[in-house]
Amino acid sequence: MNVKDVIIIGGGSTGCGIARDLALRGISHCLIEKNDFAAGATGACHGLLHSGGRYAVADTDAAAECIAENRILSRIGRKCVEQTGGLFVRLPGDSKKYRDAFLKGCERLGIETEVLSPTRALELVPSLNPALEEAVRVPDCSIDPFRLCMLNIVSSKARGGEIFTHHEVINIIKERGRCVGVKLKEKLSSSIKEIRGKVIVNAAGAWAQRIAILAGSSLPMTLSKGSLVVTNHRLSNMVINRLRPPSDGDIIVPNEAVCLAGTTSVAVDSPDNLEVTSGEVETVAWEAASMVPEFEDVRLIRTYAGVRALLNSESLDGRQISRSFQIIDHKNGLFSIIGGKLSTYRLMAEKLCDAVMRHLDLKRACLTAEKPLEGQEELRGYPLSDRLESLKDIICECELVRRSDVERVIQRISPKHIGDIQHRTRLGMGPCQGGFCTYRALGVMQETGKVSPEESIEILKEFLQRRFKGIRPVLWGDQLREEQLIEYIYLGILSMESY
Ligand SMILES: Cc1cc2nc3c(=O)[nH]c(=O)nc-3n(C[C@H](O)[C@H](O)[C@H](O)COP(=O)(O)OP(=O)(O)OC[C@H]3O[C@@H](n4cnc5c(N)ncnc54)[C@H](O)[C@@H]3O)c2cc1C
């Protein structure tokens, strides 16, 4: 029988971080993820490695966690953290009182700041609104959540961690009131497996309440949807924040070849079937344009949304609830971890693993803050232009992904979804959103014999539907024209209409 010390449910940043932490402490574990890594809030976030500035006035615990982890991740994760730096910009009408409180808060928390004149800020980011009154420089960074998850998993796998992606936990096995294992279903074949464990960790993010219910426990949570838009090029090389209390559309993050802007905060009952409304697109683009006016007419190429899982609070709305995290020992062998940030995933994992170690009566120190993430040697770093060694064999021009990168992933994980390749190489994540490179990648998959022609049609159909869902809310002007070309390629040249 397959028995582990710890079973982790959820392959977002929290679950992957826990897997790495347990691996480095020598604890046997497995991780179960119903889709691919980073399929929940992790892959749907801004990718901002917070300096803590955003929370320095009203959520100082979260801010202190952010700055400490920002420094650690910048050290241990050089190939997934781009040292962009960030600016908080104060526009006409934005409160000077808030600015003073911001600077004071940052000073108290040890977050480095530099107040910049409009001229200096415009030298750093020429696309900024020239009417800005001032800007404050902070050590914000851009972080790749997909790479982050994969790199954490490298350490887990290297030390015997078993990883089940595309497997969903459908039940928790209980004996005499205690959780002793899980039942999981493989998504493609629907086959059922059983794994036993001494401790079960619920790192299922916005789905954590459902896991708790399977275990007969309760976990009241507030769910808040945030929507983002993606631009067709990089409008700023630094993270841009609005110098005001956190609100809609006040963050722009450079992300490889594009920029991500968001978000909104809308209470939702379920984390599934998220839709981005045209009203949300307008709000985000409008607010982003007040900081970077090019947003008024830049081509938006996609939208996406994720759900924040926040500690329940009846009296506060989504933006007011602390971004710190909570660990709950349900006293039946199940531990849940909710709240927090991508930026603080390592600390969250450390605290959760400390609690699990106490429960197992074991003493082994956490090593994740000292050891660099393993597997980074294989990755190319920043900036993107440094990756331009040769145009030969490039499959994805937007993100400069080579045929050999795609082949390596195919050999390692035999992917059955195009997303499995995207998340590991960034194929299709740039301006064309996979329009011009997905069919090439599928061709490589077929050539290697890992998928049959029939399977590749199914993979392509799933991809096109998912892609269209994200693109539909921004279909106007040039983006609509480009989309018609892509539609022609798939429906006309590749005859997808007949499938
Ligand atoms: C719009 C938005 C923007 C954000 N921006 C930032 C940012 O810029 N910086 C930052 O630091 N933080 C940001 N955050 C917060 C951050 O994204 C989250 O705190 C973090 O990613 C949560 O990670 P997680 O692993 O706990 O949850 P998730 O990433 O949601 O992972 C949970 C996983 O559990 C899996 N799962 C669920 N049920 C099951 C089951 N039954 N069986 C198997 N697997 C299951 C899901 O598929 C999912 O992959 C943002 C959040 C949102 C929503």
Topology:
Blueprint: E1 3-9, H1 13-24, E2 29-32, E3 48-49, H2 60-76, E4 81-82, E5 86-90, H3 96-109, E6 114-116, H4 118-124, E7 134-138, E8 141-143, H5 145-158, E9 162-164, E10 167-175, E11 178-186, E12 192-202, H6 208-214, E13 221-231, E14 239-242, E15 251-255, E16 258-262, E17 266-267, H7 278-291, E18 300-311, E19 325-329, E20 334-339, H8 345-360, E21 394-396, E22 401-402, H9 403-413, H10 418-425, H11 438-447, H12 453-471, H13 477-493
Parallel strand pairs: 1-2, 1-12, 2-9, 5-14, 12-20
Antiparallel strand pairs: 3-8, 4-8, 5-7, 6-7, 10-11, 11-12, 13-16, 13-17, 13-18, 14-15, 15-16, 19-20, 21-22
Helix pairs in contact: 1-5, 1-8, 9-10, 11-12
Care to describe what's here?
This protein is α+β, with helices and mostly antiparallel strands. Among the domains are: 81-142 and 222-312, 2-Layer Sandwich (D-Amino Acid Oxidase, Chain A, domain 2); 388-498, no CATH class. The chain has 13 helices and 22 strands. The strands form four sheets. Strands 5, 6, 7, 13, 14, 15, 16, 17 and 18 form a nine-stranded mixed β-sheet that branches. Strands 1, 2, 9, 10, 11, 12, 19 and 20 form an eight-stranded mixed β-sheet that branches. A hairpin with a 5-residue loop joins strand 11 (178-186) and strand 12 (192-202). The chain is globular and about 65 Å long. Bound molecules: flavin-adenine dinucleotide (FAD). Flavin-adenine dinucleotide is lined by residues 9-15, 32-35, 39-42, 44-48, 50, 168-169, 203-207, 226, 228, 262-263, 306-308, 340-343.
